[in-house]
Amino acid sequence: MTSRPMHLAAHFPGVNNTTVWAEDAQTSPPPAGPGGRQIAFSSFTHLARTAERGLFDFFFLAEGLRLREHQGRIHDLDVVGRPESLTVLTALAATTERLGLAATVNATFNEPYELARRLATLDHLSAGRAAWNVVTSFDAFTGENFRRGGFLDRADRYTRAAEFVATARALWDAAAPDGAGQPVTHTGQHFGIEGRFGLPRSPQGHPVVIQAGDSPEGREFAAAAADVIFTRHGTLEAGRAFYTDVKDRLPAHGRRPEELKIMPGVTFVLGDTDAEAQENAVEIRRRQISPQNALYALEQIWGIDLSGHDPDGPLPEADPDVDSTFVQGRVKHGDPRQIAEKWRALSAEKGLSSRETVIEATGRQSFVGTPAAVAEQMISFVDRRAADGFILVPHLTPDGLDPFVDRVVPILQERGAFRTEYTGTTLRDHLGLPAPRPRTEAGRG
Amino acid sequence: MPEPHKPTTLHLAAALSAPGAPRPYTAADWTRRVRLAEDGALDFVTLTDAFGERGPDALQALTVTAPATARVGLVPAVTTTHTEPFHLQAAVATLDWVSGGRAGWLPAVSTTEAEARLFGRRPAAPAAALWHEAAEVAEAAGRLWDSWEDDAEIRDLATGRFVDRDKLHYADFTGRTFSVRGPSIVPRPPQGRPVVVADTASPHARDLAARHADVALVHAQGPAAARAAREELLARAEAAGRDPGTLRVLAVLTVDLGGGEYAAVPSHGGGGPRAGGAGSPAVYRGGPVDLAELVTAWHDTGAVDGFHFVPADPDRDLERLINGTVALLQHRGRFRTFYPGATLRDHLGLARPASRYAAARGADRSATTQGEPA
Question: What InterPro entries does the database record attribute to this sequence (chain A) (predicted)?
Answer without folding.
Answer: Diverse_substr_monoxygenases (IPR051260), Luciferase-like_dom (IPR011251), Luciferase-like_sf (IPR036661), NTA_MOA (IPR016215)
